[in-house]
Every structure is written in structure tokens, then in C-alpha cells.
């Protein structure tokens, strides 16, 4: 078995305002292993994204702790968390969140330069990765507003990969794409995972979830079920049936 | 209308800090503009009202009573230009008053307050006490407001008591031992037009009849007896001619105009010149206030413009929603307009009300120079005009900035696209930049969105310009006052010795020049002559190159016979230019001279001209040069040298010896305090405006870019990195603006001051623009802005990466 990449202990997240208190995550104990493609599923409001952002150090839990390769990250300051993210995490968002004012290449290089000061090396790595995800040099100097959603999301994946993070966090990466673009993005993520990179992805979509080998189902802020699949190689009926059965048992 | 107002109010509340900042800027702009215009327009008017109220005469002649003979009275009575006169006897002392531990020297006139007057009346100001008590005296109001004399206080006047001994006696006589004191009790305050300012050199006091006669008995000598003639003229232009003829009548034309022992003192002041002298500083200060206010108004309007353009981009979705819901473009623009007009109305109203609160303080500062107690009531015309104009131009800017909303269709707005949206060129690629990451990102942001930087650049340039102006004014009025002292056209020396007409000679000058303390000594006299038939006065010198300060701003001083330099203001009045011929004469003789130079300075009447001694002596062979300017070595103590001079030459050689250093210091002190106050005020306002603008720009920018900042943070950028990046983004235009503003301020300060002084005859000013001070100011501006920007960007810490996905 691979090493534990992320581990939560009694992790809780409570949102409060003047009138009410909402418990979104409740005493979660989860282990995620290095090299896994973990998919977090659940109904809307179940706490999937909250869990993803707590695990990645983008948000702070209300209580409990998170270990990242046995190092505690819950006590880090905001700036320490920023350094932690740049060195260990890559993010892919449903809305891509590329900077409109920068070219595609600059969007990637600006993250790479946080970790490595060799500008040429970073640019070369970014260009190689862009070519790998099917974005050739004709679009490197274009702005996000000039590209399609699928192209932007692939560029966002390259941005997430540029610093060779230990874990990639993806929040509904195909949520705003058409099916062809979605498949293309999932193919890229699958390839990345096949090369040994851990991925934690939140999704509503069964086709996306089929790419994972660990499925965690969240309900009312708690893990209500787990399903382990073989590594994804190709779309096959048995894999789909196994997942569908699991999701049906979860009331999906 | 109500929904629009609700929308506008919601936007104001949403951008609370930016709205407050903008309101404060409107407050400052309206305050300075209203106060400046009130002073500029009403101060001169107030002077005119006062002269009308007190039936002030066109001219006042103050002379030793020995000069006022029946012949003099006949001259006034028969002169066709003189339409009315009133004569008063009074007492005159060359005395010292010591408020605030500084001896101030004036010609002091004491009047019997029971004498009736029909011309140039005086009036009580404020409360007063009865005439009982020891030596009651009524003093000009300026003695209360500036010098701090309260009712019942002792006013001690020290004067050279010529009845006790002989001044300038040989041996070891110390002049201070010859001084006597007069002790009065201040019983009230008065105001008259000619004699209630300490800055004209002649101050009038009013005594109850009994006190006046007691004083007259004590000062029973011709040297203390004086006569005042108030006169109305048919035309104020005839003033120089009347004065010139009067000098003939009383026999002063063969002496230098500056040679005036107490028994031959004759001073003539006309009302327009007095008004100019007493309101000059007010005009200058108010002109600067208005100019500075206009700069701040411009800053406000720029901020409004950019705020609207930015908010249209930020509120694109809301605009789309409103348009799709059926709101017309006009309604949307009205709602945007309301948001800013409400701030402009609030700021302008508070500013205008506030200006009335600060006016008493401004009036007090101006009173130091004018001696006029100015009380400004509410001036509806000016204040409403300021209010309306500010709102109108704000409305115009709102319309201009919001006009793009016309072109937005609901769908483009809902998609968040601006009609002006164009794909931009990717400037400064990160991997090719030679700069560090934060600097590159900052520069990239400037290049991608130059609008904000242009706004900061323009604003900082404007305020740095006025700041550099303020620094220069402060430097020249408080640190190195040489240039300031030269502005009125005065030759700066250390001692002025006026030789007795019987004892003056080149040999005397030579002897003085050879004294070990003396660096240089020159004759520099002033005499009457006519220029194209007009009575004028001129400096008379053997060689003008001996002057240390040149007043000539165009051409040169006379170098050979037949050349004349003319005061710039006179040249404009008489239509004379360099190279023109003019008829110069005296006592009926006339010759043609060539104008070779134009001079600058605050010359009284028709003074400020220059003629070579050889030429003047042809006209007036009896004329004798009497006034010796003595320049001492730096290490020499002027007061001690004067004692040595008296000891060396004895009692009969000099009519008077003046400590010019001391006189200059006294004369400049009030001007300096006003100018340095103005300079400091401009610096403070500059710092304040820069603070407000940076706060406004950065806080708006942080709000506008919170999405972008969230992306940066999500990708691992720390708060410090982003603070530095934002700060650098602001600093580029700040550094450029501060540099540009300081350079422009350095170059144009003299031109600007020259414009303000021009009406007083000072055609050019040569204030010292110390590069170190101006550079220092620029550096302080930049460092201050940097610290401020870091402080303001501290709010970036509140933006979290997580908020990006939850918004």
C-alpha cells in the first residue's frame, strides 16, 4: 500500500452567522493515499467542496486536524498555507479562474516562478505541458477570453501541474464544459494520475467519477460510503456497473 | 425616482470608504475655493467700503511741522489738482515698541482724539475702556490681534530722547543711554485706513485731549512736532505732480529723497498705492488658495471619472439586469449620477460652511500685513456660485464618464462584456522580463490597465507641483530669505548711512570704504525728475555695476550718459519699451534719453527708475549724493559697527545711520510668517490629498481585483507578495508624478509668483529653488506614498482564496 498522503482526524467545519449555525463537515476521519485518483461525490450541499478546500489548505476547519504526509497543516498561518499550496498542491476549478489580463503562458509561468526562479526553465516546462494537453504554440500568447472553455480548462490543468505538486485538487473540472471538452480534460487528468500524481476530484458526474479508483461518498458532512475500483484503463461495462451499484446503495 | 435613489444609496454604502474619501476631497476643494474666492473678491471690496465709511482722503502727507509753512498751506489751497484738504497737528516719534520681546521701530504719530475730522476719520473697533487712568491710549486693532495687547495692558514706547543729550556725540556715548520711555495704558482699539498698519512704517495712536497735551509738554521740541494734511485730488494720476511740486515748495528737491532727518521728514502716500500695499498679500494668498483649490477640484473630478468608469465595469451584470428588467439608459445613468452628486453635494456643502469657520483665522493672518480687521459674513452670491459650479461640473463629468452605458445592450452587459472590450496585446511576458516577479507583475498590470496609473500620475503631478511650490515658498521665507528680501527691488546692504548735506563727499565714502569692517561702500541715492512730463523718482548712481542685486529683468542699467532704466510697471503705463526715446528732465530742463532697461520691484508711486549721477547732475547741479550703502564682512556685527562708525566720524557727519539688517528683518517678518504659513499649509494639504487619493485608488482597486487576488492566493501567493505587487503598481506613477511635479514646480514657481506680484510692480521674482529641498520633498512624497500604500494594501490579508470559490 502506498503512503498516506492526506489524513483527517475528527475534522469538522461549521458555518455560523447571527441567526443560525450550519455543520457542513462532522468529525471526518479520512485517509487518502499517494498516487490515488480519489473522487468525492455527494448531493449538493453535502460538504464535498468544503472538504476539498479544507484538505488543500484553502480553508480552515473549525476543529480537527489534517496531516499532509504526516505533517500537520491546520496550525499553519495564512502565508505558511500559501507557501504550502504553491509547493504541494495544484488546483483545477470549475470556473478555471485564469487571470483575464494575462496570456495563457503567463498564467502558468506566474505560478511556476513562485517555486523556481529559472524563468527559461519554467517557460520550457509550461510549453511542454501545454503541448502535452494539446494546446499548441498558436494559443500560448492568447488571452483566456480568446479561447474555448475546454482549452482554458486544459491550460488550468497545466497551471496546476507546473510546480509538480504532490496532489492535484479538482473541483468539478468538467462542470462548465461540453461533453467532448469534458472527456478531453478527463483524459488529461487520467494521464497525469497514471504518471503517479495524486488527484482528489469533486464531481457530480458519473462519467467523471469513473476515472477514479477511490470513491468517497459524503452525506450530511460525513463519509457515508467508500468504493474502491481498479485503476482506470478504458471505459468498460463492469466498472460502470460497479460504480452505479455503489452510488445506488448511497441513494444517488 | 425612488428605486434609482435606493440603488445609488446602496452603491454608496457598498463602497463606503471610497465614498467617504471622495466626500472629504470635495470638502477640501469647496473649502479652499470658497475661502480663496471670498478673500480674492471681497478683501479689496472690504478695503473700499472701509475707505468710503471713513471718508478717507486720496492722499496723506505727513511732514515735520517745521516744513508746514504758510507757503505750504498756500500751495495746497491754490493747487488746481487739490480739491479739498484737512490739516492736523500731531506729535511724531521715531520710536520702538517691544511686543513679544522684539524691538520694532516705527514712526509713531500721536493724535488728539478730540480733534474733529471730516476727512480720513477713524473709528473704535471692539470694546474699549473709559479715558480714566494713567496715560490712556487707543491703539490700532492690529496691536490686539497680532501683538497681543489687551485692554489695561501697558504699552511701553522707547524713543531717542534728544532733549536729554546729544545723539551721536563723540566719545563713549551709548545711544541706549539717551533713550527715554513712555508708558501708556491701552484703553481701546481703533482703525483708520492710512495709519493702522504696522507694515507701512507709520503708525497712528489716539490720545484723550488731556493726555495728548501732557505728552506735547513732555516732547517740547520741534523734532517731535508733526503735521498731517489729508487731501483729495481731482485725479489720482496727478499725485506724483502734486508731490513733486510740494517738494519744491518745501525745498527738499536738492537733497536725496532718502535723506530725511526728523525735522525734514515728508512722506506722501496715495490711496491706490496704500490699497495695493495692504491688500497685496491677501491677493497673493487668495490667488494661491484658488489655484490650489482648482487643482484639488481637478483631482476630485478625475477621481469621479475613473470611479464611474471602473464601477460600470464592476457593475456590468447589475447594469445588464436593470436593462433587461426595462430600466432605460437614462435611468441607469441617473442612478450612477445620483451616487456621485450626493457625495459632491455633501462635500461641497460641508466645505463651504467650513470655509466660513476658517476665514477668521485667514483674516488674522492677513491682518498682520494689512492691519485691517476683516469680518466676512455669509456671501450668498459667491458661495452659491461655488456650490452650483462644483455640482455642475461634477454632473458633466458623471455624464461624460457614464455615457458608455448608452452603447451597452442588455445581453452584452449580462455576459459581462464591455462594448469597449478588445483583446489586448500581451505585454511584458513573465519569462522574458529582466525584473523580479512582483515588479514584473506590477509593471504588467500597469501596461495592461494604464488608466488607473494615468490618473495617479496626473494627480500626483498636480499635487507635487503645488507641494514643490510650497516648499520653495517656505525655503525662501524661512530658511534663506535673501531672494525674498530682494523681491521688492531693495538693494540688500548692512548699513545705510545718510550723510549731512554739508559733509557728504567722495572722500567720506573713500574713508568708510577703507574701514576694516567694510567690504564695500557705495552712494545710492534717489531723486525726483520727470519722464515724458510725468513726475517720477529715480535711483542715482555713479556706476550701477556697483549694485549687488540687479532689479533689471530686461535690458541693463544705464552704462553711459543718455541712458535710463525704467520701472516695468511704469513702462507699461507710459507705453515705453527698450530702445525707445523718452524726455527726461528736472526743473524745466529736458533731454532725450534712451530706455535701456526695465526694472522690477514694489516701487511706491512712480519710483523704480535709474539714472547715472553725471546725467542727473546736469539737470540739478545742486544735488548732492548723501546716502551711503555700507556692506560689511560676514563676521562683522552690524550694531557694533554702527557704534564704531559714530565714534569714528563724530556727531555732525551723519543725519541718520540705519541698521539695515535689523530693518529688513523687521519688515519681512510678517510677510515671511504669512508665506511660510501658506507653504506649510500647501504641504499639509498635499500630504492629505496624496493620502486620500492613494487610499481611494488602492482600496477601490483591491475591491475591484478581489477576484484576481483570490486567484493569486489560491495559487500560493502570500499576502506580503501581493501587497508589494500592489504597492509597486502604485509607486511607478507616484514616482513619475512626484518627479514631474517637482521639476515643473521648480521651473514654474517663480513665474507663478511673478504673476501674483506683477500688479504690485514686481515683474520677476528670483526665489531660490533649492534642488536639494525640492528633491527632498519629492523623495519624502515617494517614501510617504510607499509606506501609505503598504499600509492601505494591508487589507489584502482579508481576501481569502476560499472566498474566490464561494462568491
Structure description:
The complex is a heterodimer of chains A (252) and B (807). With 252 residues, chain A is an alpha/beta fold. Chain A is 35% helix and 27% strand. Chain A is built from 8 helices and 10 strands. In chain A, the strands form 2 sheets. In chain A, strands 6-7-8-3-9-10 form a 6-stranded mixed beta sheet, with helices on both faces. In chain A, strands 2-1-4-5 form a 4-stranded antiparallel beta sheet, with helices on one face. Chain A starts with a strand and ends with a helix. Chain B has 807 residues and is an alpha+beta fold. Chain B is 51% helix and 18% strand. In chain B, strand 17 (581-586) and strand 18 (589-599) form a beta hairpin. At the A-B interface, helix 2, helix 3 and helix 4 of A face helix 12, helix 20 and helix 23 of B.
**Helicity level of chain A:** 25-40%
User: How many helix segments of chain B?
Assistant: 23
The chain-level mean pLDDT of chain B equals 84
Helix percent band of chain B: 40-55%
Q: Mean pLDDT of chain A, as a whole number? A: 91
Write the layout of secondary structure elements.
The complex is a heterodimer of chains A (252) and B (807).
Chain A lengths: L3 E13 L4 E13 L3 E6 L5 H8 L7 E6 L2 E2 L5 H11 E4 L11 H9 L6 H14 L16 H13 L5 E5 L7 H16 L3 E5 L3 H4 L4 E6 L2 E7 L8 H13 L3
Parallel strand pairs in A: 3-8, 3-9, 6-7, 7-8
Antiparallel strand pairs in A: 1-2, 1-4, 4-5, 9-10
Helix pairs in contact in A: 3-4, 3-5, 5-6
Chain B lengths: L1 H13 L1 H38 L5 E6 L5 H9 L3 E16 L6 E9 L10 E3 L10 E5 L1 H4 L8 E7 L18 E13 L10 E6 L1 H10 L6 E9 L5 H12 L15 E5 H44 L1 H9 L4 H42 L9 H23 L7 H5 L22 H12 L1 H30 L2 H5 L8 E5 L6 H8 L4 E6 L1 E7 L2 E8 L10 E4 L7 E5 H7 L6 E6 L2 E11 L9 E4 H7 L7 E6 L5 H12 L4 E6 H45 L1 H9 L4 H39 L13 H22 L8 H6 L1
Parallel strand pairs in B: 3-8, 5-7, 14-19, 16-18
Antiparallel strand pairs in B: 1-9, 1-10, 2-3, 2-6, 2-9, 4-7, 6-7, 11-20, 11-21, 12-20, 13-14, 13-17, 15-18, 16-19, 17-18
Helix pairs in contact in B: 1-9, 2-7, 2-9, 2-10, 2-19, 7-9, 7-10, 7-13, 7-19, 9-10, 9-19, 12-13, 12-21, 13-19, 13-21, 13-22, 19-22, 21-22
Amino acid at each position: 500500500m502506498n503512503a498516506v498522503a492526506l489524513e483527517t482526524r475528527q475534522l469538522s467545519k461549521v458555518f455560523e452567522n447571527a441567526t443560525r449555525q450550519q455543520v457542513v463537515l462532522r468529525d471526518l476521519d479520512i485517509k487518502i493515499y499517494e498516487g490515488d485518483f480519489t473522487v468525492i461525490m455527494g448531493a449538493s450541499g453535502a460538504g464535498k467542496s468544503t472538504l476539498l478546500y479544507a484538505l488543500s489548505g484553502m480553508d480552515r476547519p473549525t476543529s480537527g486536524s489534517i496531516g499532509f504526509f504526516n505533517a500537520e497543516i491546520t496550525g499553519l498561518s495564512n502565508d505558511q498555507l500559501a507557501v504550502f499550496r504553491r509547493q504541494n498542491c495544484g488546483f483545477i476549478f470549475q470556473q478555471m479562474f485564469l487571470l483575464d489580463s494575462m496570456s495563457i503562458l503567463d498564467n502558468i509561468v506566474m505560478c511556476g516562478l513562485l517555486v523556481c526562479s529559472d524563468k527559461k526553465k519554467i517557460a520550457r516546462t509550461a510549453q511542454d505541458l501545454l503541448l502535452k494537453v494539446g494546446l499548441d504554440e498558436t494559443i500560448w500568447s492568447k488571452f483566456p477570453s480568446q479561447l474555448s472553455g475546454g482549452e482554458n480548462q486544459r491550460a488550468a490543468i497545466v497551471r496546476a501541474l507546473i510546480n509538480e505538486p504532490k496532489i492535484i485538487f479538482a473541483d468539478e473540472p468538467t462542470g462548465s464544459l461540453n461533453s467532448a471538452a469534458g472527456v478531453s480534460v478527463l483524459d488529461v487528468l487520467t494521464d497525469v494520475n497514471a504518471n503517479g500524481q495524486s488527484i482528489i476530484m469533486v464531481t457530480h458526474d458519473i462519467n467523471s467519477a469513473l476515472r477514479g479508483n477511490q470513491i468517497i461518498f459524503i452525506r450530511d458532512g460525513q463519509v457515508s460510503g467508500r468504493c474502491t475500483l481498479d485503476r482506470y484503463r478504458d471505459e468498460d461495462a463492469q466498472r460502470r456497473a460497479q460504480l452505479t451499484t455503489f452510488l445506488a446503495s448511497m441513494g444517488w | 425616482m425612488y428605486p434609482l435613489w435606493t440603488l445609488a444609496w446602496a452603491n454608496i454604502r457598498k463602497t463606503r470608504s471610497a465614498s467617504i474619501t471622495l466626500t472629504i476631497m470635495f470638502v477640501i476643494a469647496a473649502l479652499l475655493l470658497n475661502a480663496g474666492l471670498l478673500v480674492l473678491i471681497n478683501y479689496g471690496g472690504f478695503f473700499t467700503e472701509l475707505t468710503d465709511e471713513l471718508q478717507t482722503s486720496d492722499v496723506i502727507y505727513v511732514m515735520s511741522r517745521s516744513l508746514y509753512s504758510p507757503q505750504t498751506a498756500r500751495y495746497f489751497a491754490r493747487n488746481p489738482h487739490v480739491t479739498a484738504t484737512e490739516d492736523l497737528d500731531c506729535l511724531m516719534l521715531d520710536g520702538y515698541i517691544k511686543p513679544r520681546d522684539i524691538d520694532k521701530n516705527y514712526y509713531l504719530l500721536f493724535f488728539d482724539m478730540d480733534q474733529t475730522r471730516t476727512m480720513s476719520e477713524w473709528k473704535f473697533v471692539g470694546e474699549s475702556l473709559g479715558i480714566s487712568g494713567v496715560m490712556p491710549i487707543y491703539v490700532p486693532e492690529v496691536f490686539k490681534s497680532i501683538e497681543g495687547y489687551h485692554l489695561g495692558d501697558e504699552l511701553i514706547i522707547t524713543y531717542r530722547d534728544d532733549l536729554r543729550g546729544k545723539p551721536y556725540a563723540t566719545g563713549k556715548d551709548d545711544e541706549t543711554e539717551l533713550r527715554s520711555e513712555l508708558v501708556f495704558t491701552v484703553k481701546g482699539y481703533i482703525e483708520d485706513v492710512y495709519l493702522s498698519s504696522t507694515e507701512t512704517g507709520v503708525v497712528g495712536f489716539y490720545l484723550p485731549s488731556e493726555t495728548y497735551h501732557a505728552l506735547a509738554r513732555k516732547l517740547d521740541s520741534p523734532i517731535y512736532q508733526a503735521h498731517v494734511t489729508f487731501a483729495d485730488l481731482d485725479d489720482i494720476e496727478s499725485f506724483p505732480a502734486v508731490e513733486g511740486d510740494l517738494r519744491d515748495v518745501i525745498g527738499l528737491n536738492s537733497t536725496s529723497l532718502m535723506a530725511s532727518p526728523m525735522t525734514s521728514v515728508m512722506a506722501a502716500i496715495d490711496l491706490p498705492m496704500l490699497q495695493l500695499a495692504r491688500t497685496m498679500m491677501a491677493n497673493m494668498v487668495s490667488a494661491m488658495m484658488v489655484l490650489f483649490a482648482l487643482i484639488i477640484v481637478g483631482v476630485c473630478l478625475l477621481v469621479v471619472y475613473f470611479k464611474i468608469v471602473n464601477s460600470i465595469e464592476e457593475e456590468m451584470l447589475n447594469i445588464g439586469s436593470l436593462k433587461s428588467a426595462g430600466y432605460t439608459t437614462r435611468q441607469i445613468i441617473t442612478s450612477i449620477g445620483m451616487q456621485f452628486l450626493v457625495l459632491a453635494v455633501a462635500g461641497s456643502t460641508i466645505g463651504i460652511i467650513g470655509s466660513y469657520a476658517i476665514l477668521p483665522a485667514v483674516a488674522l493672518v492677513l491682518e498682520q500685513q494689512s492691519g485691517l480687521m476683516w469680518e466676512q459674513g455669509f456671501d450668498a452670491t459667491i458661495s452659491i456660485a461655488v456650490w452650483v459650479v462644483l455640482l455642475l461640473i461634477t454632473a458633466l463629468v458623471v455624464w461624460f464618464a457614464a455615457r458608455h452605458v448608452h452603447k451597452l445592450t442588455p445581453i452584452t452587459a449580462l455576459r459581462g462584456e464591455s462594448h469597449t472590450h478588445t483583446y489586448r496585446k500581451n505585454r511584458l511576458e513573465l519569462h522574458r522580463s529582466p525584473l523580479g516577479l512582483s515588479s514584473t507583475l506590477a509593471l504588467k498590470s500597469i501596461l495592461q490597465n494604464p488608466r488607473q496609473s494615468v490618473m495617479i500620475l496626473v494627480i500626483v503631478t498636480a499635487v507635487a507641483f503645488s507641494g514643490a511650490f510650497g516648499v520653495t515658498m517656505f525655503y525662501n521665507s524661512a530658511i534663506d530669505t535673501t531672494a525674498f528680501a530682494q523681491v521688492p527691488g531693495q538693494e540688500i546692504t548692512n548699513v545705510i548711512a545718510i550723510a549731512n548735506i554739508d559733509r557728504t563727499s567722495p572722500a567720506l565714502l573713500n574713508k568708510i570704504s577703507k574701514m576694516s569692517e567694510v567690504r564695500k561702500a557705495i552712494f545710492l541715492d534717489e531723486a525726483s525728475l520727470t519722464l515724458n512730463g510725468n513726475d517720477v523718482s529715480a535711483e542715482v548712481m555713479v556706476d550701477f555695476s556697483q549694485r549687488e542685486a540687479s532689479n533689471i529683468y530686461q535690458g541693463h542699467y544705464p552704462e553711459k550718459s543718455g541712458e535710463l532704466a525704467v520701472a516695468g510697471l511704469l513702462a507699461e503705463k507710459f507705453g515705453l519699451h527698450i530702445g525707445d526715446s523718452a524726455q527726461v528732465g528736472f526743473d524745466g530742463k529736458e533731454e532725450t534719453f534712451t530706455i535701456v532697461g526695465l526694472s522690477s520691484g514694489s516701487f511706491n508711486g512712480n519710483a523704480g527708475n535709474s539714472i547715472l549721477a553725471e546725467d542727473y547732475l546736469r539737470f540739478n547741479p545742486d544735488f548732492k549724493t548723501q546716502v551711503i550703502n555700507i556692506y560689511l564682512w560676514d563676521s562683522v556685527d552690524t550694531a557694533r559697527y554702527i557704534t564704531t562708525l559714530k565714534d569714528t566720524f563724530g556727531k555732525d557727519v551723519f543725519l541718520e545711520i540705519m541698521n539695515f539688517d535689523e530693518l529688513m528683518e523687521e519688515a519681512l517678518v510678517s510677510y515671511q510668517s504669512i508665506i511660510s504659513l501658506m507653504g506649510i499649509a500647501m504641504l499639509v494639504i498635499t500630504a492629505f490629498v496624496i493620502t486620500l487619493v492613494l487610499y481611494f485608488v488602492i482600496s477601490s482597486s483591491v475591491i475591484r481585483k478581489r477576484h484576481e487576488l483570490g486567484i493569486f492566493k489560491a495559487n500560493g501567493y502570500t499576502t506580503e507578495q501581493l501587497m508589494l505587487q500592489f504597492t509597486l503598481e502604485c509607486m511607478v506613477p507616484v514616482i513619475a508624478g512626484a518627479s514631474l511635479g517637482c521639476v515643473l514646480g521648480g521651473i514654474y514657481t517663480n513665474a507663478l509668483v511673478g504673476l501674483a506680484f506683477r500688479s504690485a510692480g514686481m515683474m520677476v521674482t528670483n526665489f531660490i529653488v533649492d534642488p536639494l529641498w525640492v528633491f527632498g520633498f519629492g523623495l519624502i512624497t515617494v517614501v510617504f506614498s510607499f509606506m501609505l500604500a503598504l499600509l492601505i494594501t494591508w487589507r489584502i490579508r482579508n481576501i481569502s482564496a476560499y472566498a474566490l470559490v464561494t462568491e
